[in-house]
Structure formats: structure tokens, C-alpha cells
UniProtKB/TrEMBL annotation:
One Pfam family hit: BPD_transp_1
Protein name: Aldotetraouronic acid ABC transporter membrane protein 2
UniProt record, GO biological process: transmembrane transport
InterPro entries referenced in this protein's UniProt entry, alphabetically: MetI-like, MetI-like_sf
Organism whose genome encodes this protein: Paenibacillus prosopidis
Occurrences of domain ABC transmembrane type-1 (ranges): 89-297
Signal peptide from the UniProt entry: none
Length: 315
């Protein structure tokens, strides 16, 4: 009997060893895949950074990968030589901060309202919002509406037209639908009104999804430039960083496109080698526009991941 017990334990041990070996192989393959994915993800940004820090005319020769061949700050000096860029940066920061806070708060209020079962028009209001995702009045009607509302040449045109994001609204509502109803009922039993319940109960519980929506909104507000072109292009004091960078790119294209790649390469050793090119300006603009969002994302990453997992749209 003892011999039988010993013989029966050997296959189990062999099975554990085999399973452990398979787990190690899986882990190795998983790590290799993740490293390759990280390289593929980071390479475009690192390549763009290398081009922005490389001498512009030398970049035309190609062969710039992860490190600049001829290091220089000339491209950044060209982008930031205009004093308007610094004022535009301040407007972009104000727009991103104010727009994100107002949009997230208002979207959360509407999401809480249409999530309540006792709200009679919840289905109608939800459908009305969803329809705006598929049907739009168009560019000209939107411009006429903004003009009639007196928002041309004002800072409010950056905030009010997009104060409610339907996609963000649906994400927040789905998250609120997943909250325990007993918590909200307890607040009502204690005498809390809807606004008090929203501020003191719902908002603290919705931090993950609100952080996710805030990141989406901040990226949109920071990168937006077309509305500046439409509504505030004649008001320099309301210009944003993205719009100023767009104008710098247009100016560089107009003034430097005449110089061909062969001319730039032939003059690589004289003063013309210090001139910038549209390729270098584009790379520099990309880095300048991306850095603020890259700096903010690590602080929101844990909320972003949790919010996307828990606040996903439910069927």
C-alpha cells in the first residue's frame, strides 16, 4: 500500500514540474511581447524628439532614429522666438483647466440626472443626447449660432459649445448605474436632497471615471485649434498655443519649401545649415504640444485604467 502511494505521487510531482515549466515559457514569451510592444509604442515619439533636436538640414539626409546626429536647440528657438507663443500657452492652460473642470462637472450632473429611475423623461433625454452623436447641424449653422449668442471674440466660445460631451456622459452614467442603490437610498433617508447626494456621495464614488473623462477632455481642449481659427482668429489675445504652432508651421512651409533637399545638403557646412525646415518644425511642434499631456498622464493613470474597466459602456 505504501508503494502504491509513492508511485501515485510521482505523476503529480511530474505534472507540477511540467506546469511550472509551461508557466515560465509563457512568462518569457509574455515579457518578450510586452518589450516589443513598448519599443513599437515609444519609437515614434523618441524618433520625433531626436529629429526636433537635430540640425534641420542634416535631418533631410535621413538616418535619424533614436538620437540626434548634430545636436541643436535651433528648432525650439525658432518655434519660441515669437512672444505670442508664451501668451498663447497661458490661454491654452486656462482653457484646458477651466474647460475640463466645467465639462466634467456638468456632464456628471446630467449623467446623474438621467441615471435616476424616478426621472420621468430619462429615456427621452438620453435619446436626445445620443442623437447628437449621429446628427450635427454642420459648420455654418454652428458658426451662426455662436455669432447669435454673442460668443465671437470671447473666451467662453472655448467652453460653452462643448460643455456636455455625449460620449463622456454615457460613460459616467454607466458608472453611476453600477453604484449600489442602497447608498443613495440611505442618503435620502438621512434627509439629503439630490444635489447634496450628488456632491457628497456620487462624486467621491465616481473619481475613477471622472479622472478618465477629465483626461479625454483635457487632451481635446489642449489640442484644439480649429475653433480658434473659426471664432477667434482675429483676436490675438485669445489665440491658443496649438493655433500659434499651426501658424508657425504655415510660415515655415511658405518660407522654406523653396529650398530643396539637394540644396540643403550641399550647403550643410555653411550658415544655411542652421536654418530650420518644415520637417524639423513639425517634429518640434509635436514635442511641444505633447509634453504637457505626457506630464499629466502619470498622475491619472491608475484612475484612468480603473475608470475604463469599471465605467465601460454596458449593453
Amino acid at each position: 500500500m505504501a508503494t502504491a502511494a509513492i508511485s501515485s505521487s510521482k505523476p503529480k510531482k511530474a505534472h507540477r514540474i511540467s506546469s511550472s515549466r509551461e508557466d515560465r515559457i509563457f512568462d518569457i514569451c509574455n515579457y518578450i511581447f510586452l518589450v516589443l510592444l513598448m519599443v513599437v509604442t515609444l519609437y515614434p515619439f523618441l524618433n520625433t524628439a531626436a529629429i526636433s533636436l537635430n540640425q534641420a538640414n542634416d535631418t533631410i539626409r535621413g538616418g535619424i532614429y533614436l538620437w540626434p546626429r548634430l545636436f541643436t536647440w535651433d528648432n525650439y528657438a525658432y518655434v519660441f522666438k515669437e512672444a505670442s507663443v508664451f501668451h498663447a500657452t497661458m490661454i491654452s492652460v486656462l482653457r484646458s483647466v477651466i474647460g475640463t473642470v466645467v465639462t466634467v462637472f456638468c456632464s456628471a450632473m446630467v449623467a446623474y440626472t438621467i441615471s435616476r429611475q424616478d426621472f420621468v423623461l430619462r429615456k427621452f433625454v438620453t435619446l436626445a443626447f445620443i442623437l447628437t452623436m449621429y446628427f450635427n447641424g454642420g459648420l455654418i449653422p454652428n458658426f451662426l449660432l455662436v455669432r447669435e449668442l454673442g460668443m465671437l471674440g470671447t473666451f467662453s466660445v472655448y467652453i460653452i459649445p462643448g460643455i456636455i460631451g455625449v460620449f463622456n456622459l454615457i460613460i459616467i452614467r454607466s458608472f453611476i448605474d453600477g453604484l449600489p442603490e442602497s447608498i443613495l437610498e440611505s442618503a435620502r433617508i438621512d434627509g439629503a436632497g439630490d444635489f447634496t447626494t450628488f456632491i457628497k456621495i456620487v462624486l467621491p464614488l465616481c473619481v475613477p471615471v471622472l479622472a478618465t473623462v477629465a483626461l479625454f477632455t483635457a487632451v481635446y481642449q489642449w489640442n484644439s485649434w480649429f475653433d480658434v481659427f473659426l471664432y477667434n482668429s482675429s483676436y490675438q489675445e485669445l489665440s491658443t498655443l496649438q493655433y500659434e504652432l499651426q501658424k508657425i508651421l504655415q510660415n515655415s512651409n511658405a518660407s522654406l519649401t523653396a529650398r530643396t533637399a539637394s540644396d540643403a545638403f550641399a550647403n550643410a557646412n555653411n550658415d544655411a545649415a542652421n536654418a530650420v525646415t518644415p520637417m524639423a518644425v513639425r517634429a518640434t511642434m509635436t514635442i511641444v504640444a505633447s509634453l504637457p499631456i505626457i506630464m499629466v498622464y502619470p498622475f491619472l493613470q491608475k484612475y484612468f485604467v480603473k475608470g475604463m474597466m469599471v465605467g465601460g459602456v454596458k449593453g
